[in-house]
């Protein structure tokens, strides 16, 4: 049995792109603009021992699987093709023939690429899920890759969260500036006010607030992010107004803030941690203080762990749910929800631009972090773009307030910000 025949034995329907294998066999539409190239026997072993998403990812990240007609910095078109492919279990006879073809060595799982984290069930030694030590390790794994790599991919704003596009023709930098403008306007902050930004990343929100004269404290679990942000604050002459700490947000003891912003942190908290998360935020706000919670969500309100690729290569321990559950948990913690909106399509535009940046700076990115890691990020960002476009994931901003004791909001009757 050839490798191409093995692939056909697990397909449920036609192959929508080409395939070439190291044994010389091929299949799929001969005129397809894209084709999978299984370069080595290890590629076949990855696919055979981890059928489905994980095997494909391992072979691709390790470089044993290439794709003709697709740049690894933006494999979006490949993922569109693969989304139309359906698989089935092989018959007993086909499985026996495949085993003969691969041999004993080909049926032994090869070591995964070094970019792969342990499966969830083997992470107990790192602490309980969403404990401070385990969260610190997960965040470091993702964000401490290389500040230079992120500069190349994210652009000058160094903002790794969804932008807000005033129109589809806006540049990424304009859209990120507009996102921070929108967040600060929703929070109604003025010069002299105090803002706590949890999960602050490289300090984009911190710097935007400090430029308005707002006293801002940002916290991040990434040491590399904190160092970069502190340097950026110093270079802009903002160090007297703002601080970024290398810290878990739960270690912040200050309170009485006029506002709390959480932009891209909730995804790391864990759904079961929402009650404590929102209660903690409420305790940090003064009466009448506002929270802006900006996070990736599902289009349903069930708790759902991320798939094997995201969990092992991108965000270990990640889980998502819907905006309804986030709103309910904020309300149960005593916060009054004032407004919410979905920026799903904006995130698809953001991710498309990040992929373009990765393609443009591919050689430098590979020199900085290695080709395997660069492939992971291209795959992750292109796949996420497709998920946002197809409404498999969303991005919601929720605005809430810690109520005054008398129940008054002391806010305008209608939204006070420009969309």
UniProtKB/TrEMBL annotation:
<keyword id="KW-0949">S-adenosyl-L-methionine</keyword>
<keyword id="KW-0489">Methyltransferase</keyword>
<dbReference type="InterPro" id="IPR050723">
    <property type="entry name" value="CFA/CMAS"/>
</dbReference>
<dbReference type="Pfam" id="PF02353">
    <property type="entry name" value="CMAS"/>
</dbReference>
<keyword id="KW-0443">Lipid metabolism</keyword>
<dbReference type="GO" id="GO:0032259">
    <property type="term" value="P:methylation"/>
</dbReference>
<keyword id="KW-0808">Transferase</keyword>
<dbReference type="InterPro" id="IPR003333">
    <property type="entry name" value="CMAS"/>
</dbReference>
<dbReference type="InterPro" id="IPR029063">
    <property type="entry name" value="SAM-dependent_MTases_sf"/>
</dbReference>
<protein>
    <submittedName>
        <fullName>Class I SAM-dependent methyltransferase</fullName>
    </submittedName>
</protein>
<comment type="similarity">
    <text>Belongs to the CFA/CMAS family.</text>
</comment>
<dbReference type="GO" id="GO:0008168">
    <property type="term" value="F:methyltransferase activity"/>
</dbReference>
<dbReference type="InterPro" id="IPR020803">
    <property type="entry name" value="MeTfrase_dom"/>
</dbReference>
<feature type="domain" description="Polyketide synthase-like methyltransferase">
    <location>
        <begin position="149"/>
        <end position="403"/>
    </location>
</feature>
């Amino acid at each position: 049995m050839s490798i191409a025949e093995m692939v056909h034995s697990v397909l449920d329907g036609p192959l929508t792109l080409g395939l070439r294998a190291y044994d010389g066999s091929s299949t799929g539409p001969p005129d397809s603009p894209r084709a999978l190239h299984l370069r080595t026997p290890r590629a076949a072993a990855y696919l055979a021992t981890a059928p489905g998403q994980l095997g494909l990812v391992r072979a691709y990240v390790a470089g044993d699987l290439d794709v003709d007609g697709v740049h690894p910095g933006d494999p979006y078109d490949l993922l569109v093709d693969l989304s139309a492919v359906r698989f089935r279990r092989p018959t007993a006879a086909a499985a026996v023939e495949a085993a003969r073809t691969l041999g004993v060595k080909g049926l032994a799982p090869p070591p995964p690429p070094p970019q792969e984290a342990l499966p969830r069930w083997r992470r107990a030694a790192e602490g309980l899920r969403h404990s401070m030590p385990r969260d610190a390790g997960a965040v470091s794994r993702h964000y401490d890759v290389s500040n230079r790599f992120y500069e190349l991919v994210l652009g000058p704003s160094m903002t790794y969260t969804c932008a807000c596009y005033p129109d589809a023709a806006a540049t990424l930098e304009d859209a990120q500036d507009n996102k921070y403008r929108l967040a600060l306007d929703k929070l109604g902050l003025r010069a002299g006010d105090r803002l706590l930004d949890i999960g602050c990343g490289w300090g984009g929100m911190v710097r935007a607030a400090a430029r308005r004269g707002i006293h801002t404290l940002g916290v991040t679990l990434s040491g590399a992010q904190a160092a970069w942000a502190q340097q950026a604050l110093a270079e802009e002459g903002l160090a007297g107004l703002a601080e970024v700490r290398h810290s878990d947000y739960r270690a912040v003891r200050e309170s009485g803030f006029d506002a709390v912003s959480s932009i891209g942190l909730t995804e790391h908290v864990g759904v079961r941690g929402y009650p404590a998360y929102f209660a903690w935020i409420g305790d940090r706000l003064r009466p009448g203080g506002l929270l802006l919670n900006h996070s990736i969500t599902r289009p349903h309100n069930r708790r759902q762990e991320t798939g094997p690729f995201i969990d092992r290569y991108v965000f270990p321990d990640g889980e998502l749910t819907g905006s309804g559950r986030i709103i309910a948990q904020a309300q149960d913690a005593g916060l009054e929800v004032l407004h919410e909106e979905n920026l799903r399509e904006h995130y698809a535009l953001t991710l498309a631009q990040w992929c373009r940046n990765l393609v443009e700076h591919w050689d430098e990115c590979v020199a900085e972090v290695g080709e395997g890691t660069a492939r992971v990020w291209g795959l992750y960002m292109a796949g996420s773009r497709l998920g946002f476009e197809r409404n498999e994931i969303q991005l919601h901003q929720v605005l809430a307030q810690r109520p005054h004791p008398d129940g008054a909001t002391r806010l305008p009757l209608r939204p006070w910000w420009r969309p």
